[in-house]
Amino acid sequence: MITFNELNLQPQIHEAIKMKGYENPTPIQAQAIPELLVGKDLLGIAQTGSGKTAAFSLPIINHLALNPKKLEAKSPRVLILTPTRELATQIDGSIKTYSQGMNLRTKVIFGGVGATPQVNALRSGLDIVVATPGRLVDLMGSKDIKLDQVEIFVLDEADRMLDMGFIHDVKKMIARLPKNKQTLLFSATMPRDIEDLAKGLLKNPKKVEVTPESTTVEKITQTMNYLKKDNKVALLTKIIQEQDITSALVFTRTKHGADRVVRMLEKESIKAAAIHGNKSQNNRERALRKFREGEIKILVATDIAARGIDVSHISHVINYNLPEDPKSYVHRIGRTARAGREGFAISFCDEQEMNHVHTIEKHIRKKITVDTEQPFHEELTFSPRPVRGRDGRRGKGKAKAKPKKKLSMSKKARRRRSFKG
Ligand code: AMP
Fold first, then answer.
1. Does residue 49 surpass a pLDDT of 80?
2. Which of 56, 176, 224, 382 has the fewest CB atoms within 10 Å, counting from its CB?
């Protein structure tokens, strides 16, 4: 395994790493840092918790230390774009820690607070700007920031950016960056839109992919509950009321689903909050704070919104809906059993989710224990998707379903339509 000493970083940076107490680079750091130090672009498939902040911050700090330059007003040398204020603050804090004693000028730029201190900092010249898209685009519009001197650009949590509807702002901003720069893109998942974005943005990038360690999964007690969809709220309520839950993260498939679960729980006098891409930043931060401080025990989230949550005391992860992608199952349940604690992962599966169980069990190479004692238990069995026979009945019939006849407009109808204009 590669050690920090083998990474060609400046001595002050090694000092800061030591002070922080890091012994060895995390896998993403070990793979990404050597490539970034020689100026390569990077496509990092990783999520919060992997150590990705240091993976990009350390080479950036190293570059700035080796290449001092007189700062120009309004023109930062490094731009880090991240979806939320919370992440921007975290990244800025990490950079300050890793660059102690180096006098780097960094600033966070996000909305919801007055712009004047940000504008003033930009005027006096900055090495690094850590920004969220909305305020950055505003400051581009008012000409308070220029991006033509950016030497390194980091697009962090690209998939979450997309989920939060920022993609338009991101593209607008990318168009203002100089051609000649080093670019790093991080995303936990690679939906088509991000893949396209990466293709246009990165030049011959080094691809680094890290998945959460499966060992964490082994520490978690996993159970599966087969039941009818309509009984899910009742079982969730029962589990929350009867089990010793310190705090639980409940996953739903959709944003609306998350809101609905919260409403249902509140009807049962259970305090809960939802976080997802449709909630305002303030709203999400408030919910997270309450969850972290134990004021609410139940947080309901979608996969992407849950990604930035770094809460160490989650006792239960409840899959109200099963994820289609088995990797998401591992990501989700890895939220519990942190820091050596015990963890429980409880999954609900209705008749339409049976095939997900199959792929999840294949992925984790383990059968999940079924709780047949719970009051809503249904005997559901996995059967491959039914094929409809020629006669329309379910079965393995070889005959393919008749292709639907293409509906084409008659000449007469077309003429009628063209008259209407
Ligand atoms: P991140 O994925 O960047 O949010 O980092 C997750 C956590 O891992 C943070 O609390 C970091 O301080 C910590 N961390 C980052 N790199 C290392 C390392 N090499 N060794 C131990 N902890 C680390």
1. no
2. 382
